[in-house]
Design brief:
Layout (H helix, E strand, L loop, with lengths): L19 H11 L4 E6 L2 E7 L15 E5 L2 E7 L1 H22 L5 H14 L11 E9 L2 E7 L5 E3 L2 E4 L3 H11 L6 H14 L10 E6 L5 E3 L2 H11 L1
Helix pairs in contact: 2-3, 4-5, 5-6
């Protein structure tokens, strides 16, 4: 029996040791718009393409970067509805922590709890894996942090990472340009240059979304005007 015989079961390993539904979930991520994150010495930046399905869609209604806690934000590639569910669960987890300890949840703990939610959808029948990968950017007492969470529930801390359809080229570009001494402003410029590598059409404040968190510990999404200004600087 080939691998395809196991492709419809979430809970059955194929002879090569793979869960095929998780592989297919990663395919959904790789078909999504490119997103990337860069950890600078004094903050973190996440950037993503914001492609609209039609010119008739109101661009203000499409958000690809979400605030989870005041100091943490999430960017996704893959299926938008799955991301929305995970962000809602992450917000609930962080609020439960805040109610108990009266402080924001550490970034690593938030990532671990969110990854656990994703992993639970890989080991029981009747559900499917989340078809989304997340980039989590935050700033806590340990400084700036960037994590990537995949549909399998695995997560790693990264200095710079990319997900989505142009992931391979973006990571290659980041490997050449990344420096640990890089500051937040430089990281924003590098993020835009990396997105530009595989971008179809003209980049503008309307089709690119950027989120940053700096030493003030406040995560925020840049306005279209701010993104346009940064684009002018890198051109």
């Amino acid at each position: 029996m080939g691998e395809s015989a196991y492709s419809f079961s979430l809970t059955t390993f194929s002879p090569s040791g793979k869960l095929m539904q998780i592989e297919y979930a990663l395919n959904a991520v790789n078909a999504g718009a490119t997103s990337l994150g860069i950890k600078a010495s004094n903050g973190v930046v996440v950037a993503t393409e914001k492609k609209l399905p039609s010119i008739l869609v109101d661009e203000d209604s499409v958000k690809k970067i979400s605030l989870v806690t005041p100091n943490t934000g999430v960017c996704y590639s893959g299926m938008g509805p799955d991301s929305r569910v995970l962000v809602k669960k992450a917000r609930k987890l962080s609020q439960s922590y805040y109610r108990l300890y009266k402080e924001n949840i550490p970034v690593s703990q938030l990532v671990r709890e969110t990854a656990t939610v994703m992993q639970e959808s890989t080991q029981q029948g009747g559900v499917r894996p989340y078809g989304v990968s997340l980039l989590v950017a935050g700033y806590d007492e340990l400084g700036p942090q960037l994590y990537q969470v995949d549909p399998s529930g695995s997560y790693f801390a990264w200095k710079a990472s990319a997900i989505g359809k142009n992931m391979v080229n973006a990571k290659t570009f980041l490997e050449k340009r990344y420096s640990e001494e890089m500051e937040l402003e430089d990281a924003i410029h590098t993020a835009l240059l990396t997105l530009k590598e595989g971008f179809e059409g003209q980049m503008s404040g309307e089709n690119v979304e950027i989120g940053i968190v700096g030493e003030d510990g406040k995560f925020r999404v840049l306005t279209a005007a701010e993104v346009t200004d940064y684009l002018e600087e890198v051109e």
